[in-house]
Every structure is written in structure tokens, then in C-alpha cells.
Amino acid sequence: MRIVLQRVSQASVDVDGKRIAEIDRGLLLLVGITAGDSDIDLAKAARKIVDLRIFEDENHKMNRSLRDIGGALLAVSQFTLYADVSKGRRPSFVNAARPELAEPLFDSFVETLRAEGVDVQTGEFGAKMAVKLENDGPVTLALEVAA
Fold first, then answer.
1. Quick check: bond before 138 cis, omega within 30?
2. What is the CATH number of the domain that holds 122?
């Protein structure tokens, strides 16, 4: 599983011009799933994300977690995180998991995040989405979650 995590002041997802998810201060997660991800420890990944100390404290140091600030998550499935652009000019997505594996695993990941006690909003799996965000910092991290 590959996750691009962005600290945001606000973020939202629209599908067909309609707002389907929205958060204020928190994290936007772009989540890519590959075929070998069926055995990953979702609970460990969820704890890592909600406890990452990437929000500023009163001294402007990254010392507070999403849990500490009472922030929310917006999780968006994004198969393009596994694009291979090493050959030619058109990306190959052979490393991305097929939807029949990716969707239930993404849903399980979202439920595992919710079990950590944080508000989790989501995009719509497989839909063409307009993702809007105001990156705070900017702070953007890439996480690899291995089995």
C-alpha cells in the first residue's frame, strides 16, 4: 500500500459536480493498493497515520498528531500511485491492484482508521473525482506500508 499524506486546512471531494465529502483541519490520504497488499497490517498502518506527529504545537514544532488535534481524515483511493512510467509516454498500471481486490481492502482500511476514533470521510471508489485541498505547510509525506 502506498499512501500520499497531506496535512490540510481543508479538503473536499466532488463527484459529478456534487460534494460527497469534506473535512476541515486534518489529513488527506491518497491511497494506492497493489496486488500484494492482501496481507498488510491495516491496524498498524492506521495507528501510524493517526499518531504521526506532523501538526505544530504552540512552539511551531511538529509535535502533535491528528489524534491530539482532533482532526479528520479524507481518504481517496488512487490507483495511479502505482503507475509505471519507465517505458514510453503512457503510464502502465499493471502494478495497481484490480478493483475486486482494491475496493474491499480500501474499505477495510477506512474502517480500521475509523476504529482509531477519528472522523473519516471518503471519496467514491472508481469514480472520476475532483479533489480539492488547501495544503497546510505545505506538509506532504509518502508512506509505504508493506506486508
1. yes
2. 3.50.80.10
Match 501510524 to its residue by C-alpha cell: 48
Distance CA 10, CA 3 (A): 18
What residue numbers bound the domain in which 43 lies? 2-144
Distance (Å, rounded) from C-alpha 7 to C-alpha 27? Answer: 5
Catalytic annotation, pick one of 79, 106, 109, 112: 79
Lowest mean pLDDT among 4-18, 35-49, 74-88, 113-127: 35-49
Domain count, the chain: 1
* pTM > 0.85: yes or no: yes
140 counts as catalytic: no
Question: pLDDT by residue (tens digit) across 21-65?
Answer: 999 999 999 999 998 888 888 999 999 999 999 999 999 999 999
- Check if 6 is active-site: no
